[in-house]
Design a protein that fits this description.
about 0% strand; elongated
């Protein structure tokens, strides 16, 4: 077999392995998925009227805040899901299966590719589920064209790929699953200090640069613009740059750590 055929075959096998693990042990994915859903329900039904008044003026209804909130929580869902990837990679490294794979005649990169592709698929499914909850509580995207929907889907997949490679690197450098989960916590924490819940200009002046110059804010603003048909401005290019930069950084980091001698 050619090198490419071998890589595709072995990566497909590793992908099936990771999907089977996710199906047999769904508790981790469900627990991580619960965070954005609970935040969505909390901010809509508890803080919705107050937050909508602060964002859209006194005449704005709760639906205005739902439209503002859902795009940010969709990207937060991706960050939550990739924490499971860090834990899964750390488990593989510490339980000895990676050492076994190193002795087998399989393509070396297929182990990581299987984790990444499997995590991206799980992220897309999680986004669909959270999006369904968003529609149930009143989110509507009536102004988006078919091209904007396609661009929004592409952004979600690209963002999930970038964060997944970062999560894989975190899993590889973590001594155990608990450490991997703790190391990956910024993937949930960063959306909380972005424009997911309130506009950047509504934050204190000293805090605005922190919220603005991080990967989640431009991605959220881009997704919000695509789904709601509003202006994106320079956020589209910033989001693309962050996604590509994080994906390259995560890939180089993960592959370099994976190629080192096993611990």
């Amino acid at each position: 077999m050619s090198t490419l055929s071998l890589a595709v075959r072995d990566s497909s096998t590793m992908l099936r392995r990771n999907l089977l693990h996710a199906r047999r042990y769904p508790s981790l994915t469900l627990n991580l998925l619960l965070t954005p859903i609970m935040l969505l329900l909390l901010f809509v039904y508890v803080f919705g009227d107050t937050m909508s008044a602060g964002i859209g003026g006194s005449g704005a209804g709760r639906s205005a805040y739902v439209a503002y909130l859902v795009p940010g929580l969709l990207l937060m869902t991706i960050g939550s899901t990739t924490i499971g990837t860090a834990v899964s990679v750390s488990n593989d490294m510490t339980e000895g299966i990676i050492a076994r794979f190193r002795t087998m005649a399989i393509h070396r990169g297929s182990v990581l590719v299987g984790h990444v592709v499997g995590s991206v698929l799980q992220s897309v499914i999680s986004v669909v589920l959270v999006g369904a909850v968003g529609v149930a509580v009143g989110f509507r995207s009536t102004d988006a064209t078919a091209l904007e929907w396609l661009a929004a889907f592409g952004l979600l997949v690209l963002f999930a790929t970038a964060l997944t490679w970062i999560a894989v690197g975190m899993g590889l450098v973590s001594p155990n699953a608990e450490a991997a989960s703790n190391n990956a916590m910024p993937l949930i924490f960063l959306p909380l200090i972005s424009s997911a819940f309130v506009p950047v200009h509504a934050m204190p002046g000293w805090f605005q640069p922190i919220a603005e110059y991080q990967p989640f804010t431009p991605a959220i603003e881009t997704l919000r613009g695509l789904l709601l048909g509003t202006e994106i401005g320079h956020n589209g290019w910033l989001a693309l740059a962050w996604c590509v930069g994080l994906a390259v950084l995560g890939y180089r980091w993960s592959t370099s750590k994976f190629d080192q001698d096993p611990r």
